[in-house]
UniProtKB/TrEMBL annotation, chain B:
The keyword Lyase does not apply. It comes from the Bacteria. One of its GO terms (molecular function) is transmembrane transporter activity. This is Sugar ABC transporter permease. The lineage of its organism: Bacteria, Pseudomonadati, Pseudomonadota, Alphaproteobacteria, Hyphomicrobiales. Pfam families: BPD_transp_2. It is a multi-pass membrane protein. It comes from Sinorhizobium saheli. It is found in: Cell membrane. The chain crosses the membrane at residues 21-43, 55-74, 81-101, 107-130, 172-196, 227-251, 263-291, 298-322. GO terms for cellular component: plasma membrane.
Length: 248, 332
């Protein structure tokens, strides 16, 4: 098998006396969607925040395509091709879809101090990305007027600006309608087909079983299961989350 | 499928006509124009060159500060100190020139004062998390008091060797008979409009007002931008102070008192949203113009000046009412 895009080796994180994540090893390959499940406080968010550069692991190593990765700030994760879609999407309602996609990475034209925003190029590129995502989202429209699914598309389009290798998604389907959930799951499939590794944090069993290729279950900071989706069932995963099944 | 998707993505939801009709500033501008037409017919004194010259010159000081205020309001903040900062900057200019220094030194001292005050406001807000209302309210008091200290609460009307240059700067009409303050206002408005629309800085100002948390997460230097915005606001007050000093030919410690409310009213009437995220440079000018036309017309129509506040307050409520009605319709 090819080198893993991301390899976590015996990662632990403690905050004072509290052990949030203990001894988790995990590998992530291109084109994989890993459903990361677990009850509140199981350590999912802490684990993802270490990958995203918000926290540094107390112990253990992270390897990005075989070389050791040390992150001090979220911006560094982005520079390494690790993108995050935040649970609240982090969108500015008063700006257009294109402006949100390019926020913090605006395209400009001209020279020196006279460089001005390149609206045309940003609209064009954002439009291309929405097309790749097969999402009916208009680059020039204000995000304020968009549906939940379109807003997700804008947040996901951000991750596709650069050559992202890994996309971390925090509860992308938590607060949207059924139809919009289907849209978001399609977006995730698009990412997978482009060879991006996706980590999907979710509480929603059907979503995970719909798009994920693998499921990782955490309980009390430990990884208790790591199985291909075909080799498990919602009942087993539920048991693992609650602790009815100890470990597999 | 591909064609319809292409078309759907490329489409614009609203054309230029729809977005113009949807803008508050457009309707206020229309109100200003209609009021001017009405006044030209209803009174003999409105459409005279002298009155028009007065109107244009009177509203420029509020308009110039409203440009800076608009930036602050777009980020979701407020700057209550502008009236006092105008007074302090005028007084610093007057005192320095009165002491025999050249106009260049006077202006440099005045601008530096404005920038220091703006930086102080901005740093307290961005880095120490002060509510903008509180820190600028404090500065409203501090700046006026410092102006009194600097002048020992006297009126300054002697500006040293460059006395005439200063008066020409503020009171002259160097181009096509247009009063100088109007020229400065137009240049500053074009500059503000350009910055808001075409620069990364302008984009970030809007982003902070739209969703500050999101701006931070996406790597926008939120704190730095906020400090700069408050510096620009104070600078606009300082510039207005310098020009007004030249125009009036004298500085007292009560100039600019209560001006912050007129400035905020101008920005809000022109479409800036106090909740943040919305505002334009042209709106600031149009809002200031409406206030001045109301003020001027009441005098010409022989209506008691005590009614002025009612009409200006009514204009604020009415202008924002348009926006509310539109929002209510949208959310339905």
């Amino acid at each position: 098998m090819a080198v893993a895009v991301l390899e976590l080796a015996n990662i632990s994180k403690h905050f004072g006396a509290i052990q949030a994540v203990s001894d988790v090893s995990l590998s992530l390959h291109a084109g994989e969607v890993v459903g990361l499940m677990g009850d509140n406080g199981a350590g999912k968010s802490t684990l993802v925040k270490m990958i995203a550069g918000n926290f540094r692991p107390s112990h253990g190593k992270m390897l990005l395509e075989g070389t050791e990765l040390v992150l001090h700030r979220p911006v560094e994760a982005r520079q390494h091709g690790i993108e995050i879609v935040y649970q609240d999407l982090a969108l500015c309602d008063n700006l257009t879809a294109a402006a949100n996609v390019f926020l913090g990475r605006e395209l400009r034209r001209g020279v020196g101090p006279l460089r001005i925003l390149d609206y045309k190029a940003m609209y064009r590129r954002a439009g291309e990305i929405f097309k790749e995502l097969k999402s009916e989202t208009r680059a020039r429209d204000l995000v304020k007027q968009m549906s939940g699914g379109q807003r997700q598309a804008v947040a996901i389009a951000r991750t596709m600006l650069s050559e992202a290798k890994i996309v971390l998604m925090d509860e992308p389907t938590a607060a949207i309608s059924v139809r919009q959930v289907a849209e978001v799951l399609n977006l995730i499939r698009e990412l997978r087909e482009r060879g991006i590794a996706v980590v999907l944090i979710s509480h929603r069993m059907p979503d995970v079983f719909d798009v994920a290729t693998r499921v990782v279950v955490m309980r009390r900071g430990r990884k208790v299961a790591d199985k291909p989706i075909a080799a498990t069932s919602p009942e087993e995963v539920t048991g693992l989350i609650t602790g009815a099944i100890e470990q597999v | 499928m591909a064609i319809t998707l292409d078309r759907a993505i490329g489409e614009r939801q609203r054309g230029w006509l729809a977005s113009m009709l949807g803008s508050q500033a457009f309707w206020v501008l229309l109100a200003v124009i209609l009021a001017c037409i009405f006044l030209s017919f209803a009174t003999d004194s409105f459409a005279t060159p002298k009155n028009l010259y007065n109107i244009t010159r009177n509203f420029t000081f509020v308009a110039i500060i409203a440009l800076g205020m608009t930036l602050v309001i777009i980020t979701g903040g407020i700057d209550l100190s502008v009236g006092s900062v105008l007074c302090l900057c005028s007084m610093i200019l007057a005192v320095v020139m009165n002491a025999g220094y050249s106009i260049e030194v006077g202006i440099a001292a005045s601008v530096a004062t404005a920038l220091i005050i703006g930086a102080f406001n901005g740093l307290m807000i961005a880095y120490l998390g002060f509510p903008p209302f509180v820190i600028t309210l404090g500065m409203l008091s501090i700046a006026r008091s410092l102006a009194m200290v600097a002048s020992n609460n006297t009126v300054v009307f002697q500006f040293g060797p460059d006395h005439d240059t200063l008066l020409a700067l503020g009171g002259g009409a160097w181009f096509l008979g247009i009063a100088n303050p109007v020229l400065y206002m137009i240049v500053l408005a074009l500059l503000t409009g350009f910055v808001l629309r075409w620069t990364k800085f302008g984009r970030y100002v809007f982003a902070i007002g739209g969703n500050e948390h999101a701006a931070t997460l996406t790597g926008v230097p939120v704190r730095r931008i906020k400090v700069i915005v408050y510096m620009i606001s104070a600078l606009s007050a300082g510039i207005a102070g310098i020009i007004q000093t030249g125009w009036l030919g004298a500085v007292t410690t009560n100039i600019g008192a209560g001006m912050e409310l007129q400035v905020i009213a101008a920005a809000v009437i022109g479409g800036a949203n106090l909740a943040g995220g919305v505002g334009t440079a042209s709106g600031a000018l149009i809002g200031a113009a409406l206030i001045e036309v109301i003020r001027n017309s009441l005098g010409l129509l022989g209506i008691n000046a005590f009614w002025q506040g009612t009409f200006i307050g009514g204009a604020i409520v009415f202008a924002v009412l348009f926006d509310r009605i539109r929002n209510v319709r949208q959310s339905e």
